[in-house]
Amino acid sequence: MKKIVCGMLSLALCISAWGGEVGEVVKDIVYCAEAKERGVGDLYLPKNVSEKTPMALCIHGGGWSAMDRSGLAGVAEFLCENGFAVFNINYRLTGSGPWPLCGDDCLKAGDFLLNAPEVDKLAKIDRSKVFVIGASAGGHLALMTGLRLPAERVSGIVSISGIADLEADRLAHPGRYVPFLGKEPSEALWKDASPMSYIRKNQPPILLTHTIYDQVVPFASAKRFFDKSREVGANIAWYVYDRRDDGHCIWVPGSSPHRLHSDLEAAILNFYRGLNAPYAVPEPKPVKSAIELSAFYYPGTEQMAEWEMVKDTYPHIKPLLGWYDEGNPEVVDWQIKWAVEHGISSFFVDWYWNRGEQRLDHWVKGFYQAKYRSYLKWAVMWANHNEPGAHDEADMREVTRFWIANYFKTPEYYTREGKPVVLLWTVNNIEADMGLEKALAVSREEAVKAGLPGIYFIVVNYRPEQLEWLKRVGVNETTEYHNAGIAWWQCDKRKPGDTSQHYDFDVLVDVMEKRMASRQKLNVLPHIASLPTGWDDTPRSYQKARVIYGKTPEKFRRACETARAFCEKNGVRHLVLSPLNEWQEGSYIEPNAEFGFTLYDVLRDVFCEKPAEGFPENVAPKPEDVARYSFPPLYVGGEYTWVFDGDTEKGWYRQPYGAGLIRAGNGSLKLVRTGANRTAMQVKFLPFPAEKYTQLKVRMKVTPLKRDDLEMAKIRWSRTDSPIFDEHCVVREIQSQKIPILADGEFHEYVFQLNDDAEWKGEINAIWFDPCNRTHAKVEIEWIQFQ
């Protein structure tokens, strides 16, 4: 075997133009003799190689049918420059035989690095673990290699624009798969060849990098793998970006050998360094509050689409955690740390259940994987604003059993009088459906059968005249979410020009004591006083929003001081912040770009005992951590026909006030209409000239509650020169069209005749769609298409 010093890599002795150093490259090392010239690789060794040098395996792409190791030579150089010993390999292509031939070759290469004695003769490096990396089809092979090697021998896996889900890629490129698999694949063959089948909780750490505009491997392939890995609690990260070219968007133009863009190289290095770095979230240092502080928590951002509404309207309030994934346990740990270091000891978390259908439970799942969850208590705040008839005895038993099985017996769950606490958003719905007294009795019966002493029920929304009834049927306590809707009417100090829909934050502060006192004087049930954090739902409601303007740290301090003085005067020992982080409704104090930590600091200054050593230092995540926590940019594709025959929404997302749920499955896109005066669903896409399409067609059915009103469907469209809403967040109704529909529970096809509208012009780049205007209607959409 001939040893070749890599003088050909640069004119100076292996000094890369990219700023690092490669010591030498050992060419044509045989790892699989039966594969002949395809069973070889090149070993890149850094200049200062030692027994601590980590080891990487590089796997090239080419659709499993083309290319060789030269395609990833630039990646091998980059890794070597940053301290890796890198084995950059060939493997047998589909011309030599179908799957699993190429996958088995890559496995043999991994085993060769980890175990073959020949490697020790080449260099003394750390062979305890291997870092596996590949691009495109090589990304698929990197996943298949790293996931099939012993997990304890794999330090990490990187898939650069790789095929992580064969099914998602096959839908875009069906022609790849007969050559790759050798025949029309059976279900068993699909599973054997797809990384999706090997996902498990204890898999090695994985990084996926992908542009949403990838023209070779669809972004959906990475997203589905990421989502499933997160679902099982696996260690998964991604770096998603929106760069465009006519391919993968990963290579620096003109680089030879191909070199990754610098942001991709940085993402890969940050991922690897993070595997061995101290945990990014420092240990919390709780401080004591003179008054128990809880906070309503709204887990409303399960995808970038929810953040997009904030980003489009109020980007200046961006959280310090970025446009963050609330289900990320590390994100939850930051929230726990910041909360307990500012006196907040428990969260009352909005929780959704409608006839067994759950949604927005991602934060709770992340909480139970968080490292510091023992520092914070939490309770279900059942946001049960469901349709009439949704509550019955069977459902009440089912939901209670779910609470018992998943939450009530965990040490982190919030209790009062030794009983798990459940907050109920609205009791009127339960009373109308089955009777509140029966519902509470049934739920408590299930808890007692499970060995619990009962359930402590707190009602959030109620009228004063209901208190005697609530006490009689077994409610333990009351509270309120906030008083933004009625504060204006209770205030005597209104500013000129203000209205009930647009008024100063001072109004909230001025009525606080009066509001707290009026609730306290009722003295029928214990009441948790509410400390409001503001309101401005422009990101959801545009010109229909209620805007409470002028929130500042100084005004929030006055609110906190007013609340503390009232509590001390009246012996109140519990306050709830209302809420902590409802970004889309302008009710937030969580650290953000607008205020930094100042609102949290006000809370701590007013309510907390300062330790002798001083309050804990406010620590924010590093930019590279924020990048890991953040959702990728909203997917903007080139699809103009959406057939909902799978389990993906195809880029459509709900507007929270207009639709309570939007989900694909069983051949249709399903949603429940919640607000007749708000948009239900939206989609963005790459612009097209309006004259290209003359119609928008929809096949759907609408199943309403009984009512005889005329039903209408409506679309609005955005143009590159005229977005749907203007700089003042006012929706341009002129760019819209309505048609009548049948709300009869049957599928029908409907046509919006676009070319009849004078405003259908220019470049079109988004659609807002309201399938009907009936609250609680259920909608199923088979397809939507421009024609």
Task: Report the sheet-strand fraction.
Answer: 15-25%
Distance between the termini: 63 Å
Number of strands: 33
Helix content: 25-40%
Low-confidence stretches: 1-19
Number of helices: 22
Mean pLDDT, all residues: 92
What gross morphology would you assign? Answer: globular
Can you summarize the main beta sheet?
10 strands, mixed
What value does the Rg take, in angstroms? 29 Å
Structural class: alpha/beta
Provide a descriptive summary of the structure in words.
The chain is an alpha/beta fold. Helices cover 28% and strands 24% of the residues. The strands form six sheets. Strands 9, 10, 11, 12, 13, 14, 15, 16, 18 and 20 form a ten-stranded mixed β-sheet that branches. An eight-stranded mixed β-sheet has the order 1-2-4-3-5-6-7-8, sandwiched between helices. Strands 23, 25, 26, 28, 31 and 33 form a six-stranded antiparallel β-sheet that branches. Helix 18 (505-522) runs parallel beside helix 20. The termini are far apart. Mean pLDDT is 92; it is low at 1-19.
SSE blueprint and pairings:
Layout: E1 22-30, E2 40-46, E3 55-59, H1 73-81, E4 85-89, H2 101-115, H3 118-122, E5 130-135, H4 137-148, E6 154-160, H5 166-172, H6 177-181, H7 187-193, E7 206-211, H8 219-231, E8 236-241, H9 262-276, E9 292-297, H10 304-313, H11 329-340, E10 344-354, E11 357-359, H12 362-367, E12 377-382, H13 393-408, E13 415-416, E14 419-426, H14 427-433, H15 436-449, E15 456-461, H16 467-473, E16 477-478, H17 487-490, E17 502-504, H18 505-522, E18 529-532, H19 538-541, E19 547-549, H20 553-570, E20 574-578, E21 581-582, E22 587-588, H21 598-607, H22 623-629, E23 641-643, E24 653-654, E25 659-665, E26 668-673, E27 681-689, E28 695-703, E29 711-719, E30 736-741, E31 748-753, E32 763-770, E33 778-786
Parallel strand pairs: 3-4, 3-5, 5-6, 6-7, 7-8, 9-10, 9-20, 10-12, 12-14, 14-15, 15-16, 17-19, 18-20
Antiparallel strand pairs: 1-2, 2-4, 10-11, 13-14, 21-22, 23-33, 24-27, 25-26, 26-33, 27-32, 28-31, 28-33, 29-30, 29-32
